[in-house]
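Review form for a predicted model. The reviewer records the input and the model, then writes brief findings.
Reviewer: anonymous (R2)
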Amino acid sequence: MRAYRLARVREQLRKRDLAGCLLFDPVNIRYATGTRNMAVWTLHYRCRYCFIPAEGPVVLFDFHGCEHLSDGIEVVDEVRPAISFLYFLSGDRTDERVQLFAAEIADLVRAHGGGNRRIAVDSIEPMAANALTAAGVEVIDGQETLDQARLIKSEDEVRCMRAAIAVAEEGLARLGAAAQAGVTENALWSILHQVNIARGGEWIATRLLSSGPRTNPWFQESSDRVIGRGELVGLDTDMVGPYGYWADLSRTFHTGPSRPTDEQRRLYRLAYEQVQTNMALLKPGMGFREFAEKSWQIPDSCLANRYSCILHGVGVADEYPVIACKEDFAATGYDGVFEPGMAICVESYIGEDGGAEGVKLEEQVLITENGVECLTSFPFDERLLPEEI
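Model under review:
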């Protein structure tokens, strides 16, 4: 799997006539090399990076004293100590440190670029980009390069994704069983974290669990609110599970013990219809614009609170592409084509403008040669599904 992913990165480098890429984003480093170290910490302290030439040795620059963490990783040819130029770590020696950093990268580009001085960089501070330019290296934005590399999943990647989803679904089962009146949102949300860590997962990227009136509008983060009787509890896992793969599914529970109201069931039915209709519509060869135009029509009364997209890619993170709602496509959408091997999340949030509650549902699927395979299997809440479904 590591060899496949590195080959995908290099294929994109050659396609764009790049000498190599310089990666700071720990998610991109994990994809390209299979290594990890303090991933969440290095998301905001850029003191770990990796140089990958289109042809030549992969050089990982790791945090001080961490060189041994990549022992046995066959796609990493050399590990060096990173030169940090962040003020937090370098203080008034920042200018000195950034020049040393740029000189070392420029040496690698000269040694392995074959005369090509163009490299893709995914995320970098302006002073470091300027220092690389002054050292004779042409810097271009690298996120497109990595997103295109990450687009098509190998069979091994899909297996890793299934493992992450299995952990998420175990967490959802425990969380759903505990979703009762008297429990706080935070206590409920902690269950998913505990299961993920216990099963070898890594972290959860958001805090999207809310209850009762906090389910509408969506995106209200988990709080210390005490959940009430007969309420809806919605959540989105956004979970980085085992092997660094994303498990991204959403469910809405009813706390009971009473029967859900007709309005709760109506909202749930609409969200369920949106997910099922759009999932059935997906197929290889279909364009993004065509999909948006044919997608399930969100009721006018729920348009104001519509989700930010109807589909998005998924892998080692939420990924390209994002398919905008048909109402937003002219402003924010872009075209492309669905291909076999793409992993996609099918989204729905249904909540009336000014309504009491809302419903969040989401499935994770794999595009195949013939259509889609649903990777998630966690059941929907039968108490909320009307009998005719």
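Findings: The chain has two domains: 2-150, 155-374.
Further findings: The chain has twelve helices and 17 strands.
Recommendation: see findings above.
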